């Protein structure tokens, strides 16, 4: 029945020539050195293939976060399970299988992490290990790597504070693990890890065993030298220091020159380190022994220390078109081909790799040698390389004007009952076209021949980028079928007649860009009519009455971005929930705030209120970045064999469209019309088609039952949910598969490894 119908969904992406925006905020290379993982301001992760020759190619885009990604790290012993964990600014955490792009666990916690370390001690702990997290909260949080539940914390006995960076120190010599951290105040603290596992599991408090102020602020990295088990490298933004790990005595301080800010570093070998800067440069030093006494005042009776000093061997630099800041890292591979790789990601989306020689040496004259860039690549390079990449859905309509550039789509709305796709563009133009025709032109050869014969409408009335669209009749059959509402960057909202192409009314809201257009629910009526709600990026909300062509309410007192709209149908209240959990209750008739509550108070009132929830599914919530999966415009139901999902990676921009084909629905529609009430499925042809469609689906369903634990990404191979159920956070990946006919697109959902679809031809 319904499950079978849903699982026959196939999805194809019309990417267009422009790659989605991917402003890199976090980057890592997996332990097998075959995959680069990047996190972005937009909230997506990208998986990139890394070849043995260090060539890069984008593989999949993972939709899992609705805010900027703050950190990435491995979440298991990689040889057993290829899992990484990502964390976002809003407290979301996702664990991903990087082999197939599936999200295996997700949680939202009230913590913003800036660094995560994976820790597992197989002979001392049960379970999958811990994620040790630090960030904008006190001390160190311990999270279960499997369930993402908070286990406990490592607490500070003195001066508890936010931690800026941390490192797990594993000493082979004494077979002990320690956690070394540096706080925002510049205090170094050490907790015993190995010996505190039982205490943590029994929820007993564990305090630091030692601490020391390091006399510098803004620590960026802390690294232990496993080769000597003596040296500790600590990188601050204005200097880097080397300490003796035994007693934390200072051995060397190197201060930054020319206004450069250090961003991190790593120990390459015994007495050899690499330090990199915020602007993408790095230096490799040999730490030489000076033979000089370091302690000028050995009054405490300790042995005089010999100090070290750095000798610059090599350096790396980036191409000059810099986009700050860079996020960098270093990978020292202990398996074939034993590469040492320095890598960086930029806000522009560019990845750069340097192959660091096993033994870096300076030039003959002693001056530092420049290590050349090995590889550099962007998502756009992937798109440019495959010239046959599918066109965007409106290329055939917008590119006609004297070979001008294709219009940039900034918002889309699909109207299934009319098979119309409405696309608002950056220049204020709105295109209306038959979606199936547009899909045909974008996917099939000879689209250029179709170009001139494709009927479409162009609506001109906005002078700024169109940011939001709404087709009211699609949400309420009582409303006029010809109406369409659009909002722009200039907070102008236009009511159109899409059949006559005329403007019925313009509302000038004098607010920020219109980020969402919503409709009141059927049971909520003002003067016997439903109303339109506009959410703007300046946190204001306006209610528009379309019949009367007037603005009923302009609610402007919200201090934070609007996240929820609820309606109280009896009292004519509009309830607005904001990002800081404050709730404003507006009386619509008087335009007054009658209550300002915290969310917890409101929840206690909820039983007495009829609340119609609204998630910002149609519009893009204000705030930094955000590939909100609630923002993929979800169809209420899947009406026929074809549907279009516009996908946004940022609220201001429609990057691409996903075409959804329900194959079983299609097969049923293709069957011959029954004659004299004879069931079509009785005919050999019809029953055979249906049997094949169903049996394929049933096989897939069996596979899914065995694979229940994963909450996998959307897949062309097997799907067990309708798209609006499956497009929830953490469950989406979009694949770039490189075939002869360009970048095709498969969406995966609970995929089984055994089924491999044949590469589809055009």
TrEMBL record:
Pfam families per record:
ANAPC4_WD40 (PF12894), WD40 (PF00400)
Keywords from UniProt, A to Z, are: Phosphoprotein, Repeat, WD repeat
What the entry lists under SUPFAM superfamilies is as follows: Quinoprotein alcohol dehydrogenase-like
Q: Where is the composition biased (Basic residues)?
A: 744-754
Superkingdom classification of source: Eukaryota
Keyword Oxidoreductase carried by entry: no
Which GO terms of the cellular component aspect does the record hold? cytoplasm
Q: Please provide the Gene Ontology terms (biological process) for this protein.
A: protein localization to plasma membrane
**Start-end of the WD repeats?**
62-106, 555-596
According to the entry, every stretch annotated as the Anaphase-promoting complex subunit 4-like WD40 domain falls at: 532-598
Residue numbers spanned by region Disordered: 729-762
Checking SMART domains in the record gives: WD40
Q: Spell out the protein name for this chain.
A: WD repeat-containing protein 72
